[in-house]
Amino acid sequence: MAIEQTLIVVKPDGLIKSLTGNVISRLAEAKLTIMGAKVMRVSRELAEKHYEHLKDKPFFEELIMYIMGEVHKTRRVLALVYQGDNAITKIRDVVGDTNPEMANPVSIRGAYGRITTTGVFENVVHASSSPEDAEKEIKLWFQPDEIIEDLYPVKEVTLKNVKKLVWA
Ligand code: DAT
Ligand code: MG
After folding, report:
1. Rounded to whole angstroms, how far apart are CA atoms 107 and 127?
2. Does 1 have pLDDT greater than 90?
3. Distance between CA atoms of residues 119 and 23, nearest Å
4. How confident is the model at residue 118 (pLDDT cuts 50, 70, 90)?
5. Which of 9, 54, 85, 160 could cross-link with 126 by S-S, CB 3.0 to 4.6 Å?
6. Is the Cβ atom of 40 under 6 angstroms away from ligand 1?
7. CATH code given to domain 3-146
8. Strand locations in the chain, DSSP E?
9. Where are the domains of the chain?
């Protein structure tokens, strides 16, 4: 048994096509535990850190615009953390190949993804591809108090003069 965590992001094409319900239903096939979920805006800084490994690729700038929602004019994604036995492989199986045209048609990317005329893989979801990537990505996308359990070591800090919104 290898208990793993994984970051899933339903990308802006998934949101604009109202596929969030379908995606979550398909992810349920992996029989994992959902540990965190939020709808959020992806900043350029987050996008560039998340796709750091692809920064030399010709499609990098388009990829950044895509994940930020600039392409679909919907600046929202749904970020999820799942945990369970072999979570990474199980989720990647349900998600399918990176290239939606090569992906198994019954996988999420095979069913709902497409390649744009400019060559970007609009593949609906991101899923971590190794435990190391998962840790890096979860720490990048989520704060400890946004996840139901402390998945990684945490520390307490005292912040001074931090402005924060509360319900009026
Ligand atoms: P994955 O998302 O399956 O982990 P990745 O990390 O290699 O794949 O790439 C991240 C994203 O970049 C991928 O979801 C879609 C895009 N991408 C990767 N390779 C591409 C290519 N050859 N052409 C166009 N887009 C690509
Ligand atoms: Mg990847």
Report:
1. 13
2. no
3. 23
4. confident
5. 9
6. no
7. 3.30.70.141
8. 3-10, 33-40, 77-85, 114-115, 121-122, 125-127
9. 3-146
